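Input record (Table S2, row 329):
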Amino acid sequence: MAEQGKVVVITGASSGVGRACALRFASRGWSVVLAARRAAELAEVAAGCRKHRGARALVVPTDVTDPEAVDRLARRAVAAYGRIDVWVNNAAVAAFGSLQEIPPEVFRRVLDVDVLGCVHGARAALGVMCGQGGGTLVNVSSVVGAGVVPYNIPYVVSKAAVRALGGSLRQEMRLAGQRGVHVCTVLPATMDTPFFESAANYSGRKVLPMAPVYTAERAARTVFRLARRPRREVYVGPAGRLLGIQAKVAPALVERLLAHQMDRSHLSREESAAPTSGNVLRPLPRPGSVGGGWHGRRRTAVRRLGTVTLAAGVVLAMGRRACGGPGRR
Ligand SMILES: NC(=O)c1ccc[n+]([C@@H]2O[C@H](COP(=O)([O-])OP(=O)(O)OC[C@H]3O[C@@H](n4cnc5c(N)ncnc54)[C@H](OP(=O)(O)O)[C@@H]3O)[C@@H](O)[C@H]2O)c1
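Output record (NAP complex):
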């Protein structure tokens, strides 16, 4: 498929999944428009897109909590490349700790970035796409949008909201007769990115990625596939898909299991951590990268074990349901 001349806007392109998406689209000849707060990191990603992939790349430093800045991002993309085929609402932050531990201003800012950032992005992107009669908006949610966890409430609430936003926007596009405009939601399982090191953390315990851990490139491949063939919702990683099924079939069981798993393996029992607002209130002066160093062989082994355990959980839950087991919600 000839893809030269196609244009993608990616928020949160300085790190992790967004950075991997930029390189993925660039490698297929797309023009990429890169947004995040750290200009120097974006410039490095743009250089990688141009040098190694021969793509056109535009850097537009943007804080997604600022609706005018997000509108400007859309205008800059159209001015430079003439259209927007795909917009990826990917930027996000998180704050770990209990509800009582997370300061209100940090809680609010996570919602601002993760929810309103997507809302501003959707408004800007769909304005352009409806005008040009086609395009695909991709909102990056998370498996926690399907199965909730404790000690990360602002993020969990945000990702559920992003999932709901996708559904409502699809309805609005359909009712507006915008058949060429698609809205897709991506629900990744745990990705190997700098996310866990960058997050705000008031729990007193070091944040560890919850196994199984998948590569950011895997998420980027999923996003790229959506650009070619839009779908309503897509999980990234089989563990995510299984969790989605489990959460539908046995919500009470999943709620209990995930609480346990979060407490046992997402927050370290051995390593402590000083309170930090991480990259929530302002960007961290740290070099960006795609990976976070979590995708080792040990993780792969744990990943397999995790997938098998989840599969067993599904079978167990379905069996219980079939036998009229606990129907508590
Ligand atoms: N990692 C996981 O396990 C995982 C799992 C499920 C879903 N996800 C989702 O995947 C997406 C990407 O996450 P990631 O893992 O790649 O995290 P990441 O490496 O921490 O990247 C987050 C990106 O968001 C940008 N950002 C943060 N605040 C911003 C703001 N106010 N305005 C503009 N950009 C901002 C950051 O750049 P600057 O600091 O330069 O602004 C960075 O580029 C997120 O939506 C996340 O919720 C991640």
